[in-house]
Predict the 3D structure of the following.
Amino acid sequence: MEVDSDSESTASRPTRPMRTLLQQAEAAILKQLGDAIGEHEVTSQYCCGGTISPSLNATVPGESPQELASPAYSDYSTANQFTLRFDDPFMEGISRRVTFPMRAEDVSFNNLDHLLKATQNSACGKFGILSTTQFCIDFDPHRSGLLDVVAQVLLPGFECEMLKHRPEHRGVRASAPILLVVPESTDKVNIPFVKTPNSLGKLLICLPTTHQGGKWEITERHTEASTTFDCTSSNSNHLRWAACFGSCQYSIHKVQGGHQLILLYNLEVSERVGCLLHRPIPGQGLLAMPSCFPLYASVKNMLQNPGFMKEGGKLGFYCRYPYLHTKPKTQNLMPYELKGVDMVVYSLFRSLGLKSIVRPLLDCSAMKKRLEHLDEHEYELQRDDYYEDPIENIHLAGFPRPIEMEILLEFKHEGHLQDFPSFEWWKERRDNASRVGVKFHPLGFCETSQESTNGMERMATELGETWIWDKVYDVKWVNTPVKGTCDLALINLPEIDRETLGEPTDKEREIERHYSHVVVVVWVPEFRKRNLTGA
């Protein structure tokens, strides 16, 4: 009897064991979770919420309850309370207050009833409203740390025009709140939302009052995913809060056994980092004025001194803080990401109208040390090239630009050739060149040729094809690099003469590592042209 070959091969092939119903259910659940986290990211982060102790609003971080209870502070019990003050619409000139968590005197004086009556004139129908001009409250969502949580959850991945190219510098701020009063037996209601150009979403805080029901339901409009928050008064000493994107629908379920009081804030995207560099707008103030920095007067007096850099020049400043500046996006983040004295120095010179740049500076110390024994040989090669074709190779002499042009003109008209500089002058001039990156480069990799070991100039030329720089001469550095502020900028794998040495081992082909620093370079005009716009 003949056996079909296909049947035989199929029979011998191992078969996957059939998954149980439990395994299939687990796989389906994991797929749903993967979709929520990955393909539909908004499903996993469209809202957040929690509870806040009123003491977080009053206690300064680092202050213990014992310190707050000392004579230096008022009674600590007040630190766990906050007060809402409002105008009585029925009695002109009369203001009332309600303290949370509710005190006995608030009930006895019927201040809560007055508050409810004050909101009954609202045109919203199902709930009462007090506008931002009709009340004030000493609860601050910024101080409680609540907005830090909102920024950490809702900001990543949020798309808007505000700081589109540097979203890392975004923050969150809350507008002045309005007060919503949802009365007892009100059917399910939707919360209004006023959208502004930089809107992120909305924040709701439930004040601690006695009531039942009133659950909050947040629905993401695009995916129809929803989350429910229980806002019953099970713990009257805590505030329940929730925040969500502006694209969400916010609803409140039926309230029973009391009233629900809600603070409603609009959340906006703000500029957390970099606003110090804004230019002043006519008719508006400036958030931070460089002239208010303690260093401003010293810098201004220095530049107005006729004896300081009379012919002009360049100042250099090594930034004092690490910035991880070889990340791919650093070019978009600088100079806004500067901090501390680094930002002060850059903004001061910039405000005075001086050309100022923030760039990476390649540290050439390792290259100089490695090729130092070839300095005299390199000098002789460049000197010979100069005498052979001075017009083509005059740059090798390292003459300053005006002198270089004078020498060329003199040679063309009279045939007189300026002597090549001495070895000491040539070496000092070469080492005086700062290799400033044309931009912030990500970590680079290169493989220099055998010829690069003939001298520092050849090595620098080949490295510069990967890590592109400008040579900036005669920079007067006002400080030295701070340990720990450099980043690995360039990795070089030198080529070795295989005909002489054969295939190199890892030890013979040693990896070269070149580092860079973040620096501020300032061009100071000659004194007679020094028009300090900010002075």
